[in-house]
Design goal:
Its EC number is 1.3.8.7. By secondary structure, the protein is of the alpha+beta class. The chain is built from 12 helices and 10 strands. α4 (66-85) packs antiparallel against α5 (87-103), α5 (87-103) runs antiparallel to α8 and α9 packs antiparallel against α10 (322-347). The chain is globular, with a radius of gyration of 21 Å. 49% of the residues are buried.
């Protein structure tokens, strides 16, 4: 058993870290406060070839896998971006490039992957709906076949990055949920040309005011008689569950990596303050009430990282990874929350000052406990699918 990262993953860590070193914590604070995409970081990552890691070499990418994407995401987040800004890696390298490389037709790969590799083509992912929530199989957005096209109507919520996306990976029902046997049958994943759909008035969106992660807006999305040619189906009609699992498991892993990097930032900020801040004649870090919780966070981070890398490695080997992905996401999100909460407590009243990054880190860490799936549903999966306990619904 070898716990050494492959040379390629180590090279990714060094390369992404070198880009991120040009941008300090104040940069990320300004991006969040100004609700602006980190354009400069995106451009530098693209220039260095760090966005196309999962794109096959024949399309201009690095020919690497989810493990390298997870390392890149963690490194970006740990540099100061933290959880919210690390959507930089989730939206296009994760949702777009990784999925199209695995499930796209030859024509889709040739048309989209080169642009994803160099950062010119960005994507978003649309699954969640107001009435379905985390019950993905109960979505009601429906795609009706009309000759060589599908006509799609429905509504999505919490769709991040629509404003910048050239293409949306849209999940719709092609068989109503009530008629689907098994329940996973009748899902189809579509590639939607966002600018064209918006220009024609068939796709509209409304940003959702939110707490944290404001470098990338999240939206309500409305689909009205949206026409998508059959050539833009990703995978097979009615068999989109196979594509969906290859989106959801990497999503859990990459957002786990984002949370892990956020935990590293929060711990670093807390330790630095605990060394410098003196009360009663000594640094507050000399007090066990401060030191021990931070030491425990360090242990949580290292344990979560082991499972995260294992889950990504399994995915890259084509092996089942759902259990590991769920555990990794759960452990990383809990580490991020504990790190941010203790960083807040370490700073005391100064944590409320926006001159410090602690409030941003706390908001980012809270995201991981509910998105893209709540901790309760992760635990329910482990209880029913792994432990074999009775289902409650």
């Amino acid at each position: 058993m070898d716990f050494t990262l492959p040379d390629g993953a180590e090279a990714v860590r060094r390369g992404v870290a070198a880009v991120c070193a040009r941008y300090d914590m104040d940069y990320w604070q300004r991006c969040e406060a100004g609700k602006r995409w980190p354009e400069e970081v995106w451009a530098d990552l693209a220039k260095g070839g760090w966005l196309g890691l999962a794109v096959p070499e024949e399309y201009g990418g690095g020919g690497q896998g989810l493990l390298e994407l997870a390392v890149a995401t963690e490194t970006l987040a740990a540099s100061g971006a933290a959880g919210g800004s690390a959507f930089t890696y989730v939206l296009t390298p994760g949702f777009g490039a990784l999925t199209v490389a695995r499930h796209g037709s030859a024509a889709q790969r040739a048309a989209l992957l080169p642009g994803m590799a160099d950062g010119e083509v960005e994507t978003c992912f649309a699954l969640t709906e107001p009435d379905a929530g985390s019950n993905s199989l109960a979505i009601s957005t429906f795609a009706r076949r009309d000759g060589g096209e599908f006509v799609i109507n429905g509504q999505k919520v919490w769709i991040t990055g629509v404003q910048r996306a050239a293409w949306m990976l849209l999940v719709a029902r092609t068989v109503p949920a009530a008629e689907a046997r098994p329940r996973t049958h009748g899902l189809t994943v579509f590639l939607v040309n966002v600018p064209d759909a918006v220009a024609r008035g068939h796709l509209t969106y409304r940003p959702i005011p939110k707490m944290g992660a404001n470098t990338t807006p999240s939206n309500m999305v409305f689909l009205d008689d949206l026409r998508v040619p059959e050539r833009d189906v990703l995978g097979e009609v009615d068999q989109g569950a196979a594509v969906l699992w290859d989106i959801l498991n990497p999503e859990r892993i990459l957002l786990g990596a984002s949370a892990l990097g956020g935990a590293e930032v929060a711990l670093r900020v807390a330790v630095s303050y605990a060394k410098e801040r003196e009360v009663f004649g000594r640094p507050i870090g000399a007090n066990q009430a401060i030191a021990f919780p931070l030491a425990r966070v360090k242990a949580q981070i290292e344990l979560a990282r082991l499972m995260l890398y294992k889950a990504a490695w399994l995915f890259d080997q084509g092996l089942p990874c759902a259990t590991e992905a769920n555990i990794a996401k759960l452990a990383a999100s809990q580490a991020a929350w504990e790190a941010a909460d203790h960083a807040f407590q370490t700073h005391g009243g100064m944590a409320f000052s926006l001159e410090y990054p602690v409030a941003r880190l706390l908001a980012d860490a809270r995201i991981g406990k509910v998105a893209p799936v709540t901790e309760e549903l992760l635990l329910n999966y482990l209880a029913t699918q792994v432990l074999g306990l009775p289902r409650g619904f």
